[in-house]
Specification:
Shape: globular
Helix content: 25-40%
Strand content: 15-25%
Number of strands: 9
CATH architecture: Alpha-Beta Complex
CATH topology: Spore Coat Polysaccharide Biosynthesis Protein SpsA, Chain A
Structural class: alpha/beta
CATH class: Alpha Beta
Distance between the termini: 31 Å
Largest sheet: 9 strands, mixed
Radius of gyration: 18 Å
Number of helices: 10
Number of domains: 1
């Protein structure tokens, strides 16, 4: 388990507490990458859970670089990449690991993401189209949520009752097979934030690995949506990452044999 925090102790400490309270039956190797934080959360975590390893950074790095730092510090056959703002549902971690065990060509298994109010969040996406991207950035939310291109992008035709192979999954909480990572490579550190999840899913597909969403594993994502505020720093990072993704793959909708 790899968590990354940048002064996010207010949500990270409850997230780790929920992890250990979620009934995980497997041995856990939990790593927290502290991205030069100053909120004191690392000390509290070390005090409450001495088995959690804290990797302190002396300066701030982008999310993919921090995730890679944590991945390299672990040896388990499966590694779960976690945002700091999560609440783990009962048995969620075990169910993702069991899915990887029973589906040997799966490189990434992701949970069903929920809101704190119990509403289902978007947990998987199809490859972007230009229309979908433009509509998702529309200032009129109703247009975006009802547009056919967006509905297609977010798998609005799927009822989440059974696991499904998908194009890509967002990275708030994803479990990856180490053997697949060894083949396709770690997270691309050129993406400071955003589109690193699209990129790793694409590289999995290109190497013949599958990406699945497993609805029986539920995790609440509190979800800080800084990227939707026009001209904010996170919004600019989102735009830069989109350009980098297009430049790297020369397409928004790659040719992988998937829809």
């Amino acid at each position: 388990m790899v968590f990354v925090t940048t002064d996010e102790g207010a949500v990270l400490v409850p997230a780790i507490e929920s992890l250990f309270d979620s009934g995980v039956t497997r041995s856990l190797d939990v790593v927290v990458v502290d991205n030069a934080s100053s909120d004191g959360a690392a000390a509290e975590i070390a005090r409450r859970w001495p088995q959690v390893r804290i990797l302190r950074r002396n300066r701030r790095y982008g999310l993919p670089a921090n995730l890679n730092h944590g991945i390299r510090a672990t040896k388990a056959p499966y590694v779960m990449l976690c945002n700091s703002d999560l609440v783990f549902g009962s048995g969620a971690v075990d169910r993702l690991a069991e899915f990887l065990e029973t589906h040997p060509r799966t490189g990434i298994a992701a949970p069903k993401l929920m809101s704190p109010e119990g509403e289902r969040r978007i947990s998987a996406r199809r490859w972007y189209t230009l229309r979908a991207l433009l509509m998702l950035r529309s200032p009129i939310k109703k247009l975006a949520t009802t547009d056919p291109a967006v509905q297609h992008n977010i798998y609005a035709d799927w009822d989440y009752r059974e696991p499904m192979a998908v194009d890509w999954v967002p990275c708030p909480a994803t479990m990856l097979r180490r053997a697949a990572l060894d083949e396709v490579g770690l997270m691309d550190e050129r993406f400071r934030l955003y589109f690193d999840d699209v990129d790793i899913s694409l590289r999995m597909h290109q190497a013949g690995w599958e990406v699945w969403c497993v609805p029986s594993a539920e995790i609440v994502h509190l979800e800080q949506r800084a990227s939707v505020r026009p001209l904010s720093r996170a919004w600019r990072w989102h735009l830069v990452s989109l350009i980098k993704f297009w430049w790297k793959h020369k397409a928004l909708r790659p040719k992988t044999g998937r829809s």
